[in-house]
Amino acid sequence: MSTIEVNKITPVSGGTAIQVGESGDTITIPSGATLTNSGTANNFTNYRPNANPLIINGDMAVAQRSTSVTGVSNGNSGYQTCDRIRFDESGTMGAALTITQESLTSGNAFINGFANAFKVDVTTADSSPDADDWSRINMRLESQDLQVFKKGTSNAEKFTLSFWVKATKTGTNTIELYDADNTRSIGGSYSISSSNTWEHKVVNFAADTTGAFADDNGEGLRISWTLSAGSNYTSGTLPTAWESSTVANTAVGQVNNFDSTSNNFHITGVQLEVGEYTSATIPPFQHESFGDNLQRCRRYCHLHMNTDQDGGPFLGPCFAYTSSNWNASLQLSPPMRAVPTVTSVSGSNYYRIFSNGGTVEYNQIDFNAATLSGGLCTVVDCTLDGANGGTAGHAGKTRGNSTGAGTMMLMDAEL
Question: Is-above-0.90 flag for pTM?
Fold first, then answer.
């Protein structure tokens, strides 16, 4: 290996760019080496080799709960399809929506590496939202994952958000970054130039030297894309600097994406970067393997069983405390963010136990407790309700036993 020893490399006279290597080359940064700059070079300021992206499931590839939910309307706030992206509404939203995990086969987002998107389809229009109506999609990040922004310090960093978006309605749309630890927010906007065409957007947000993110597992940052808003949210001034959150400043200039049943709104390729970038300088989207992406999503939502066929996945081991009292314990990987809320579906003989050469059917799972042990593991304990039969002390294993019923156990520790 040849070695070149220099103190400084500068471009040729009149130039402003230095190229290292050619397309297809591998540029190696040795382990333990650090890239630094004077504070003005964007691309190296926050170089983090092998770091996970700050946004989880930004490519919308994982959808544990469902791939399609219809009739989303007033009172239906929550996580609907794609993991880590949530629909929220307030007031008395008059629109009704179908929300799906969309499969892409063409368009600019697809040819740039995205096979899935989060889609909002308007099925009932609301041409004139009430003053207190407000509808958004948002992504929420843990405070402890945001320390790299140095928020609340004299070295606070800027935020850059980029994403692919397609909408039927052209015009101005708004974004809010909301600091949940300090009740502070900043606004941004982008324009849909061409109807029903995938467009790549890069939106910059100022640094904030006031209000540090907490170093905990609570909600630190909420990134919200407004879809429709009434006058209570549009009558102020969109803030270009961080401020104490003000409702009237939330969505100034926002178009109404719900004013026609022809309207759709699609988003994918969401990434959040530390520092200020343009469409020309922003780093490429950091694709993860599906397995790594799913594992990170499971910190917040863990779908343990989901089958519509007899002989679905096993829940796990169980034992007969008495002849009519079966219990099971499930340890989850990875540990969830917090003690989860656990739900399951129920019905006649939805589940089956295999024990002592025979089977026992039962109807539902009753959850006794869910615990988080020092952040190291999450354990869910439950009673297999209606499992009458067996011998005290015998062990078994249990699984779904339903045909066409969608047997499901869902553990939820979302922000």
Answer: no
